[in-house]
Amino acid sequence: MRSCRPRCVSCRATRRRGRARRDLDACAVSDRPGPVHDRCSDAPPPLLLDGVALFNRGEFFECHEILETLWRAESDPVRYLYQGILQIGVAFHHLRRANWIGAIRQLERGLAKLERYPPICQGVDVALLAQQAECCLRLLRQLGPERVGEFDWALVPRVKLVGGSLAGSDTPVGDRVLEHGAEE
Question: Is residue 91 a contact partner of residue 102, using CB atoms and an 8 Å limit?
Answer without folding.
Answer: yes
